[in-house]
Prior knowledge:
The protein is an alpha+beta fold. It has 4 domains: 3-60, Ubiquitin-like (UB roll) (Roll); 64-255, 2-Layer Sandwich (Threonyl-tRNA Synthetase, Chain A, domain 2), CATH 3.30.980; 283-557, BirA Bifunctional Protein, domain 2 (2-Layer Sandwich); 574-666, Rossmann fold (3-Layer(aba) Sandwich), CATH 3.40.50.800. 34% of the residues lie in helices and 27% in strands. Strand 34 and strand 35 (647-652) form a beta hairpin. The model has no long low-confidence stretch (mean pLDDT 92). Keywords: Aminoacyl-tRNA synthetase, ATP-binding, Cytoplasm, Ligase, Metal-binding, Nucleotide-binding, Protein biosynthesis, RNA-binding, tRNA-binding, Zinc. This is Threonine--tRNA ligase.
Amino acid sequence: MSDAQQITLIVDGEEMKVTTGTTGAELFFERRDVVVARVDGELKDLDQPLPEGAEVEGVTIDSPDGLNVLRHSTAHVMAQAVQQLRPDAKLGIGPYITDGFYFDFDVAEPFTPEDLKTLEKMMLKIINQNQKFVRRVVSEDEAREAMKNEPYKLELLGKKNDAAEAGEGVNVEVGAGDITIYDNVDRKSGDSVWCDLCRGPHLPNTKLISNAFALTRSSAAYWLGNQNNQQLQRIYGTAWPTKDALKAYQERIAEAERRDHRKLGAELDLFSFPDELGSGLPVFHPKGGIIRKAMEDYSRQRHVDAGYEFVYTPHITKGHLYEVSGHLDWYKDGMFPAMHIDAELNEDGTVRKPGQDYYLKPMNCPMHNLIFRSRGRSYRELPLRLFEFGSVYRYEKSGVVHGLTRVRGMTQDDAHIYCTREQMKDELTTTLNFVLGLLKDYGLDDFYLELSTKNEDKFVGDDATWEEATRTLAEVAEASGLELVPDPGGAAFYGPKISVQAKDALGRTWQMSTIQLDFNLPERFELEFQAADGTRQRPVMIHRALFGSVERFMGVLTEHYAGAFPAWLAPVQVVGIPVAEAFNDYMFDVVDKLKAAGIRAEVDISSDRFPKKIRTASKDKIPFVLIAGGEDAEAGAVSFRFRDGSQDNGVPVAEAVQRIVDAVRNRTS
């Protein structure tokens, strides 16, 4: 073979000479788990020839990118099945999403659960035909001819030049570069049996999808996510490399449904969402109030110990405050509309004294700035750490409001720290350690960090200030030893932030605490302190929310613990169950001792039979059940029953009380 017939590639880090025109499929033919190639950083179909000098990696089906390709390919198979079942269905978009995929369709009637079962059978038939996914590059005219019966695809072709701005999922179809169509090709005849406008890449063939997929649900969806557009029908699905992986996912989803905080909140009588109040405005019942108070009380004490000072601010303010802060310029869509009040009218209706716009506050920082500015400040007071459980209100769109985790009225555990530039790095480090330690106390201990940087279209201040703030936050985050993930453009308009991403018991990630470094609001509010040399200087401002919101944090904890809160948070920590009515008084004496020690305890003296009382305590997820009968009463003892069903008999009452007190005090159960 001559050199002219060869090219050099870097394959998985090693140099290799291959024949000109070699494809990824030929390069990785011995690796059956490789489904797509990463060529110079871009994912390419395996049937594409590899260029001279390319760096090539094999992407396996179980890798994140491989899973995305698998799921996007499965979406195509689903769409093919839909158009077989309903020939008049018009195609929308069909991207992969976390753990799955969806495809939108314009159809005369919504899909039913029976339709989804039928479609799964049709998909399996297509998969077993081992159709090939074949990419072809086309001109815009050729694409329009191929998609002439697909009005939504034709609309996408018109958006190609601004695909990134056009709406939800457009890049999946017509991003930058060539226009491509993917054909599903019958292996026997070589004919295209279905096609779609798509950027790809895709699996080499449908057989790789195997039987490890499922259609999960259908719903209405607006074209390109815009409520002003046509309403379509969306089918969601999931796909995995193996049946075992699919089964594990389905079990996780079932467990997540069992842990849904809205369901548990009703079952355990913790909170509710009355229609009479409006969307996103929860109320906490007595038991939920106990949990919330325990969460807040512990947080308050930790803040006192860490040198924070408590402040309180009102729920509404004149609009001018948010003009100064910049929120009315950059955040108005997230605020409730203004209340125009205090206008005075003459008898003829003309305005004698104009009114003013008041707003429900969406955040506390501008008011905390007013507290700082209320008098002269000295460097000796810094760092000044102001803390508030402040009620704020945000106009979340009705489609995104969700239980306690996305509400319109919330209580933020909000802190703002004012310090010198020399203090800021140490203060950020101390704040991050404080945040992580407190989250661990509530039972969350698996973290990574995310660094949100400037949104080039939505910021105040100069580039140099942003660069300094971003660099400082990055150094603090990296020094923590935790993984740091970039979030380009995700910062608030006034400064970059670190967010703590915590994993719950199911491995799901939740954004928890945020720490933002802000040089801009002190400037806008003209905050000053007198430095040691007598000059007036601007403080640096650190915004910090630990829970994010008390409501959201409680929703997360409810799901994390599946409603079985640790004893220190549980609304009822102990239930005493006498085996017969004759031992009621004895059990009341035991419970009185627990109450005297600060334990939330009660006696079940209902008319239910003893086994039913035990089941009720288990259903209510009570941490400790104390049981007493004749032998226990004679010995001055109780039987300890735990959540897992195990039991410790004949425990002296004093020892039982001490065990429970220790468990609550040490947050060990």
